[in-house]
Amino acid sequence: MTTAHAPRLREVWLLAATFLVAIAGLIYELVAATVSSYLLGDSVRQFSLVIGVFLSSMGLGSWLSRYVGQAFSGFVWAQVLLGLVGGFMAPVLFLVYGWMGDVGLPLYGMLIAVGVLSGMEIPLIVRILKEEGAREFRFENVLTVDYVGALAASLAFPLLIIPHLGLMSASLAFGALNLAVAGLSLWVFRDRTTRVQVTLWALAFAATLGALWQSERIVSVADAGLYADTIIYDQATPYQQITVTAYRDRVRLFLDHSIQFDSIDEYRYHEMLVHPAMAMVPRARNVLILGGGDGMATREVLRHEGVEAVTLVDLDPAVTTLFRDHPDLSRLNARAFSDPRVTVVNQDAWEFVEASDTLYDVIILDLPDPKNLALSRLYSRSFYGLLAERLSAHGAMVTQAGSPLFAREAFWSIAETFETATNPLSPGRPGLWTLPYHSYVPSFGEWGFMLAAPQELGSESLPLPEGLRYLNADEWQAARLFAGDIARVEVEANTLQTHALVGYYLDGWDRWFP
């Protein structure tokens, strides 16, 4: 390399490094936000907190950079530390959670450290460029490259990184990227490099590459702490983390580390969810299921004679494909997805209902709990009004409504929401008829359901199909009685403007399980 070419090479490299470190920095932020939403719940709250803490830490790091004496040396050490702290963030957090059950302190401690180090990068790069006497240096060029890198990371994270790497490998891979930036910087600026820098960088790089090579084993160790049973399936999709565990003949499904069913008692939940609505309508020929990608609710629907068509809408194709094609898991739903009457649509539930003009006799909402705003909208007055328009004249819909014991206010908020939604049979007087009921499901505790219809339906006796393991006439009578500590309370309806349900849900569960 000639002396004349050296400054130009260094200038180009520093701009390229700006692009790369911007990608890594945003990936760490997204990893932290995703891990916190997985392990701490309430994705909206966690993403908001993580973004706020990270950006303020970057501001602190930018301010602290003025106290770094040698810009090049400071930049290299920042990359080495980012590679270690950011790279090992996901492994450390999952391992700590598996062993201790809490990650709040290490999560935000590592996030602040990563934010401070990331905030130092641009000021130090600018100082190096000025020291090198970069021709036509413009500060806005550095910021432009930084912002383009952030855009690339934000697009790649959900579309490429999580589906193909997963959180653990992604964290380590981008830690290796920061260390690669440090190594190339040491080579490009080798006249400024010391033996100590090269030695420590090499050790850090080797440790990170070794951890990346063993990432699957680290995942297994972390998961062993999170789940009591053997993991038989584990996949990160653009929508969620899917984990299936097994112990002997007992199978459990977890989405984002929250249990969705346990095969030992899932029949209690699904029989109570499906059969009251199916039995109370005059006919149930055309049925819509929103959620329920495991196929259990579909299995129960198909028990009823006269069912001609079932449409199941679930956002994540990985779930429905798993429970259609896996030989052991498809057996749990009696291979319901192979029935010619069943159509599976992988789409957002709201978008599907909004675009549909089909009338359904029964609509079953087997959705995750409303623990964030994205899910809360599917429990809103607007959505229930939209669903009511898709019901046939004597149709009914039913939703799982959480626990009337653990989240009492949330349960009754769902009732209030149905009762104030638009009724297509009497638009001048909004409100759907509701029938709340509940039952005990050992995996979940006391669990509630809410049935709604444009007009009152007979509910005293249910013509149930044969072969049910739990629901019978006596259980149905008991299910409609509410003890004093779970009886109705005064609450707000859930709307897209207020999302009162999220607060009720989180406060209720925090009260029981702080």
Overview of the molecule:
The chain is α/β, with parallel strands linked by helices and 514 residues long. The chain is built from 18 helices and eleven strands. The strands form two sheets. It has a seven-stranded mixed sheet, sandwiched between helices. Strand 2 and strand 3 form a beta hairpin. The longest helix has 50 residues. The termini are far apart.
What is the string of SSEs from the N terminus onward?
HHHHHHHHEEEEHEHEHHEHEHHEHEEHH
Instruction: Kindly report the average pLDDT value.
Output: 89
Helix content: 40-55%
How many helices?
A: 18
Cα shape: elongated
Strand content: 5-15%
Question: Biggest sheet, in brief?
Answer: 7 strands, mixed
Structural class: alpha/beta
Radius of gyration: 27 Å
* Strand arrangement across the biggest beta sheet: 7-6-5-8-9-11-10
Report the count of strand segments: 11
Quick structural summary:
By secondary structure, the chain is of the alpha/beta class. Helices cover 55% and strands 15% of the residues.
Task: Give short descriptive properties of this protein.
single chain; 514 residues; alpha/beta; 7-stranded mixed beta sheet; 11 strands
